[in-house]
Specification:
Helix 2 links the parallel strand 2 and strand 3. The protein has 8 helices and 10 strands. An 8-stranded parallel β-barrel has the order 1-2-3-4-7-8-9-10, surrounded by 7 helices. It has a two-stranded antiparallel sheet with strand order 5-6. The chain has 304 residues and is of the alpha/beta class.
């Protein structure tokens, strides 16, 4: 299978001051998809600068583009509720003409985890985030496939939540589930049309690219085991690598050859889509824009 190349555009520009142009250019360059992050605010240096909402940004992108797939990488339960999120997703899928993919994960312990808390409250532990994620995903699946849903769970509830007419994509828009641990991989196997990883975060600072590839290989093997336990063929899931968080950092964007080498090593692991960050100067995602665009134009043909 050919390797698809996508990009993630951080929502840091006003729509009429460069924001719209990036999404249009992503379509012109032939990217398979363009995603954005779904946060209330993100890490330094973005914490104290402009940061726009994912859903309005993607809605605007849907009206500006025609062919480009759109999505989140990723949405999480940190500040989302399945009932309200489902309504927004159905609307996005409709406005985009069925071009929307929901990237979804359990969330982290950054600013999103604390913004809505009372001053004396503690953010959720990793276990608590996994507990909520385990309830969030199946409920969201139901909300996007059933006209009316009533549900009473430990963390979420819905009383005759109506979602007519449902998604343009049937039976619903695809889920790309970000997961590395057993509980998340089980959700990906049961509910995902794709699986997302950024690699092993423990290797980011001190690991090597070779160690990262082996760690990701292990994650992919665990996904296959989770799919087998769910009675599903792992080949049914797309495998998406969001780059920039492995020990390679942004080195694959230094040249077309460097990217082809990096992407080829991960294609051998079964990945079907590689996502690269749109360059942002003076940040961890700084890269030469001309080289980035050459990668978009040339790399995919070398990886078929």
């Amino acid at each position: 299978m050919s390797l698809r190349l996508s990009t993630v555009i951080l929502p840091v520009h006003r729509w009429h001051d460069g924001g719209r142009d990036q999404w249009l250019r992503a379509e012109e360059l032939g990217f398979h998809a363009a995603y954005t992050y779904d946060h209330l605010s993100w890490r330094v240096p973005f914490r104290d600068g402009p940061w726009f909402g994912a859903v309005p940004t993607l809605t605007a992108a849907a009206t500006a583009t025609e062919r480009l797939r759109l999505g989140t990488l990723v949405t999480s339960p940190n500040f989302r509720h399945p009932v309200t999120l489902a309504k927004e997703l159905i609307s996005l899928d409709d406005i985009s003409g069925g071009r929307f993919t929901l990237g979804i994960g359990a969330g982290g312990n950054g600013f999103d985890a604390t913004t809505l808390l009372r001053g004396d409250a503690e953010p959720w532990t990793p276990r608590e985030r996994a507990d909520r994620f385990g309830e969030f995903v199946p409920l969201l699946d139901r909300l996007l496939t059933e006209d009316a849903v009533t549900y009473e769970g430990t963390f979420y509830s819905a009383t005759e939540a109506r979602n007519i007419p449902g998604c343009v994509q049937r039976p619903r828009l695809p889920f790309a589930v970000a997961a590395t641990g057993p509980r998340g991989l089980k959700l990906a196997a049961r509910h995902g049309q794709a699986w997302v990883t950024t690699g092993d975060p423990k290797l980011f600072e001190t690991g090597t690219p070779e160690e990262s590839v082996e760690a990701i290989r292990g994650q992919a093997e665990n996904l296959a085991k989770a799919c087998a336990a769910a009675g599903r063929n792992v080949a049914e899931l797309d495998k998406i690598l969001l780059t920039g968080f492995t020990p390679d950092r942004n080195r694959p964007l230094e040249s077309v050859d460097a990217f082809v080498d990096f992407a080829g090593r991960h294609q051998e692991l079964g990945f079907t889509e590689i996502v690269i960050h749109w360059p942002i100067p003076d940040s961890g995602f700084a890269a030469d824009q001309a080289v980035f665009e050459r990668i978009a134009a040339e790399a995919a043909t070398q990886l078929r």
